[in-house]
Write a structure and sequence with these properties.
single chain, 734 residues, alpha+beta, 3 domains, 11 helices, 37 strands, globular
Length: 734
C-alpha cells in the first residue's frame, strides 16, 4: 500500500501546472508523507494499554505583549490518573485540583475568608467533566479542550492533500540508549482558506513515520462559531461572526510525544494557547494557556478497565453522555435525576461517561473535600517558574513565528488599524497643552513581528500639533524601536504626566505632577523580554529640547476651588545626545525601578542615577506598602536633570517640584485599616529631602478602591506646614 500511494503521489506531481499549488515540494516529501499517512491510519499496534499521570495547568495572564513578562490573572491546576486501552477506551480519575485568582481578589475586593471561598469555587468548577487531552495519536480531526468549534482537518487525514501543501524543511538527530532517532520537519500550509484548517510543522520519525511533534495554528471560517443551519444565510452569518472574533483572538496548539522505554512514542506535552489582543491598543496582550503533561508511564500489561457506567446505559442516552452522582453514603451511583444540581455533584463526586471515535470514555471526579485534600508536592505559584516559563516561551515563540508567516487576512489581522500606546493618547490634559486630542495608526508592511506606528496630537490651549513615527519589531527576544518625534516630553523619567491618571488629577483638582519640555528628534530603543536583562530598556537618541510654558487652567477645578495650574519651569534649550538604561520590573512581589540617564549637548552635560523600590506587606491581616526612591545628579547644572521633591510619588501634602536639587531621597508608608480590597480607608506617612533644608514630612488619609486602582487622598504637609491637598489618583492605567 505504501509503495502504491507513493507512486501515485510522485506521478501526480508533474501534472500540476502552477508551482504555488504543488502539493509536495519534492519526491522526498511525498514519500515521507505517504509513510506518515499509513502510520496515521494504522496506529502503533505495539501499545495495547497504558497507565499514566496527567497534570494540567490553566492560566490567564496579561502583559504589554505576548512575549513580555505576564501578570497572572488566574491559575488552576489539576492532577489525574488515566488508563487507556485499545481500540480507544479511556478512564480518567481526577485526584486533586487547586486554584488562585488574583484578578478576582482585585475586582471583587474580597477579604481573606471570602477570597478562600471564591478560589474554592474555582477549584471545583474548573475541573473538566470530560477528557480534555488527546490520549494517543491525533485522529483525522483536531480539537483540543473543545477548540476549535469546528474540528480542524488533520494534514494526514484521507484526502487532506487536496487542502494542504507539504515541504520537508529541516531534520535533526536525537541520541537515546540503543537507538539514534532521526526526525524530519515537514511544513504544512493550507492551499486556500476553509472551514477549519491548520498551518504548522510536523516532526516525523524517519524510521517509524510517527508524528512525534506537531505545532499548529488554527485557521478557518468556523473556528469559533458554526452555522446554525444548512442554508447559505446560516453560513454567511457564521463566517461574519468568526471574522469579528478573529480580530481579537488567535489560537495555537502543540502536541509533543516522548520515547518511553526506548520503544513507544507516547503523549508527553500538549499546549493550547488562546491570545486576546485588542487591535487598537499596541501594549496589551491577554494570553490564556493550558499545558498538559504526561508522566509515570506503565505501558502494556495493565488489567482491563473496569467502567462504573455500563455501555448499555450510555447507548440509551440521546447525547451519548451520561452522569451518575455518588450516593449520599458514598457507596454506589444514583440515577441522573439529581445531576442538574451542580452543588450535589461537587459535594458527593460523580462519574460521567460517553462514547467517542473507536471507543468510550469515563471521568470520575471525587467529592470536593477529596479534591482539596490532595497532597501537592509544591505550592501553586502565580509567578513564573523559570524552567516552565522557558519551555512555554520557546513553544509560544515557535507558534507565533508560524502565525507571522501566514497571510494576515487569514488571521483577522488588518494591515492598517487604529492604535494607541496608552489610554491617554486619545484624550489628555496638562498645563502645557490643556485639553489635547490625539490618535494613532499602526501599519503592518510585512516583516514578521514588525509594524509602523504613526501618532498625532493637537493641543486646544497651545494650538501646537505634535506627532511621532515608530518602526517597531516586537518579537520573542525583545522589543526594538526606531523612532522620530516632535512631542511633549517629561523631564523626570519616573513621572506619569502624560498618563490618564495625571490628566484626571490635573483636570479635576488642578494638580499636574510633572514638568515638561518640547522634544524634537529621534533614536533607537530595545527592551529585553527574558533572561538577566528582562525588562531592561536601553535608549539612545538625539533631540532638540525647548522650554514650554503653562498655557491653560482647569475650569472644572474652578467650580469648587482654584483651577490655576502652576508655571512649567524652563529648561536649558539646545541640541542634546541622550542615552538611558532603565529596568521597570518586579522580583517576586517587590517592584524595582533603577536607571541611569546621560545628557550631553551645547548647553552642558550631566548624568542622573536613580533607584526605586516598592514592597507590599501584610500585618495582622491588613495590607500595606513601603516605597522608597533615591536619586543623584552630577555634571553641569542643567535644569532638566534637576531632581524634584513633592507630589504623589515622593512626599504627599506638597506640590510637585516644591524643592529641587542634585540629590534626593524619599520614603512612603501606606497602611490599610480594614481588610477589604474593594473599599479600604488608608493612612500614610511620607518623608523626603533634597538636602537643601530640613526634610519634608507629610501625612494623610485616603480611600482605596479596587485594591488601590483608584485612590482619593487628603494629605497635609506637617514640616513645614502646608494646607490640605486633595488628589484623585489612578495606579494602573497610564
Amino acid at each position: 500500500m505504501v509503495g502504491t500511494l507513493v507512486a501515485l503521489l510522485l506521478f501526480g506531481l508533474p501534472q500540476v501546472q502552477q508551482p504555488d499549488t504543488l502539493t509536495f515540494r519534492d519526491p522526498a516529501t511525498a514519500e515521507l508523507y505517504a509513510r506518515a499517512q499509513v502510520r496515521h491510519i494504522r496506529q502503533d499496534a505495539l501499545v495495547h494499554d497504558y497507565r499514566a499521570t496527567v497534570r494540567t495547568r490553566l492560566e490567564a495572564s496579561a502583559g504589554r505583549s505576548r512575549f513580555a513578562r505576564q501578570t497572572t490573572l488566574m491559575a488552576h491546576e489539576s492532577v489525574a490518573e488515566i488508563t487507556w486501552q485499545r481500540p480507544n477506551d479511556l478512564r480518567v480519575q481526577v485526584l486533586g485540583a487547586r486554584a488562585v485568582a488574583p484578578v478576582i481578589r482585585i475586582i471583587q475586593g474580597l477579604g481573606g475568608d471570602v477570597e478562600d471561598d471564591v478560589e474554592r469555587d474555582l477549584r471545583r468548577q474548573m475541573v473538566m467533566d470530560r477528557p480534555w487531552f488527546i490520549p494517543r495519536a491525533l485522529g483525522d480531526s483536531i480539537r483540543l479542550m473543545g477548540v476549535p468549534e469546528h474540528a480542524a482537518l488533520h494534514p494526514l487525514a484521507d484526502g487532506a492533500w487536496e487542502f494542504y501543501r507539504y515541504a520537508i524543511t529541516d531534520s535533526l538527530q536525537i541520541v537515546v540508549p540503543d537507538r539514534t532517532v532521526r526526525a524530519y520537519k515537514m511544513r504544512v500550509e493550507p492551499k486556500r482558506f476553509g472551514p477549519a484548517l491548520v498551518a504548522g510543522d510536523m516532526w516525523i520519525d524517519a524510521e517509524t513515520a510517527d508524528v512525534v511533534r506537531f505545532a499548529m495554528v488554527f485557521l478557518g471560517d468556523f473556528l469559533w462559531e458554526t452555522p446554525d443551519g444548512e442554508t447559505a444565510a446560516d453560513s454567511a452569518k457564521a463566517i461574519e461572526e468568526n471574522e469579528t472574533v478573529r480580530k481579537f483572538l488567535s489560537v495555537e496548539a502543540m502536541v509533543e510525544y516522548a520515547l518511553v522505554d526506548r520503544t513507544y512514542w507516547m503523549p508527553y506535552r500538549q499546549l493550547l494557547a488562546i491570545t486576546a489582543e485588542v487591535p487598537w491598543f499596541v501594549n496589551l496582550s491577554i494570553p490564556a494557556m493550558a499545558v498538559t503533561t504526561f508522566s509515570d508511564y506503565t505501558v502494556n500489561g495493565n488489567p482491563p478497565i473496569e467502567f462504573a457506567v455500563r455501555d448499555a446505559d450510555i447507548a440509551a442516552e440521546e447525547d451519548a453522555r451520561l452522569v451518575r452522582v455518588r450516593s449520599a453514603d458514598g457507596i454506589g451511583l444514583e440515577p441522573d435525576t439529581v445531576t442538574h444540581d451542580r452543588g450535589i455533584r461537587e459535594e458527593r463526586g460523580y462519574v460521567r461517561a460517553g462514547e467517542w471515535s473507536g471507543g468510550r470514555w469515563e471521568m470520575e471526579v471525587p467529592p470536593a473535600d477529596s479534591l482539596e485534600g490532595f497532597a501537592w508536592d509544591a505550592r501553586l505559584q502565580t509567578v513564573e517558574d523559570p524552567d516552565e516559563a522557558r519551555m512555554v516561551r520557546e513553544r509560544f515563540a515557535e507558534l507565533s513565528r508560524l502565525e507571522q508567516e501566514l497571510p494576515p487576512e487569514w488571521l483577522g489581522r488588518r494591515r492598517i488599524s487604529f492604535a494607541l500606546e496608552q489610554a491617554a493618547d486619545l484624550v489628555r490634559f496638562n498645563r502645557v497643552q490643556g485639553l489635547s486630542l490625539g490618535g494613532g495608526v499602526e501599519l503592518r508592511p510585512g516583516p514578521a513581528f514588525s509594524s509602523l506606528i504613526l501618532t498625532g496630537r493637537f493641543g486646544l490651549a497651545d494650538l501646537r500639533p505634535m506627532g511621532s513615527a515608530t518602526w517597531r519589531r516586537d518579537g520573542p527576544v525583545g522589543r526594538f524601536d526606531v523612532f522620530a518625534y516632535h512631542d511633549l516630553q517629561e523631564v523626570e523619567p519616573w513621572t506619569r504626566g502624560t498618563g490618564l491618571g495625571n490628566s484626571v488629577n490635573a483636570l479635576f483638582v488642578a494638580h499636574d505632577d510633572a514638568d515638561y519640555y518640547l522634544g524634537s528628534g529621534g533614536g533607537i530603543a530595545h527592551t529585553w523580554n527574558y533572561g538577566l536583562l528582562r525588562n531592561v530598556e536601553v535608549r539612545l537618541g538625539y533631540e532638540y529640547q525647548a522650554s514650554v510654558e503653562t498655557a491653560t487652567s482647569s475650569a472644572i477645578a474652578d467650580l469648587w476651588g482654584d483651577g490655576t495650574l502652576p508655571p512649567n519651569p524652563p529648561i536649558a534649550d539646545g541640541h542634546f545626545f541622550r542615552g538611558s538604561v532603565r529596568r521597570d520590573d518586579r522580583i517576586g512581589v517587590v517592584g524595582i525601578d533603577p536607571g541611569v540617564e546621560v545628557l550631553a549637548g551645547g548647553a552642558g552635560a550631566g548624568v542622573r542615577v536613580w533607584a526605586g523600590v516598592r514592597v507590599p506587606f501584610t500585618i495582622l491581616g491588613l495590607g500595606g506598602a513601603f516605597q522608597t526612591r533615591a536619586a543623584l545628579a552630577r555634571g553641569d547644572s542643567l535644569p532638566q536633570l534637576a531632581l524634584r521633591l513633592g507630589g504623589p510619588s515622593t512626599v504627599r501634602g506638597y506640590d510637585y517640584g516644591i524643592r529641587t536639587g542634585r540629590e534626593l531621597w524619599a520614603a512612603q508608608l501606606d497602611l490599610a485599616i480594614v481588610r477589604s480590597r474593594l473599599i479600604s480607608p488608608v493612612v500614610f506617612f511620607d518623608i523626603g529631602d533634597t538636602f537643601a533644608a530640613d526634610p519634608l514630612i507629610g501625612t494623610g488619609v485616603g480611600l482605596s478602591l479596587l485594591n488601590g486602582l483608584i485612590r482619593f487622598n487628603l494629605a497635609k504637609g506637617v514640616h513645614p506646614e502646608e494646607s490640605l491637598r486633595f488628589d484623585l489618583l489612578f495606579r494602573a492605567p497610564r
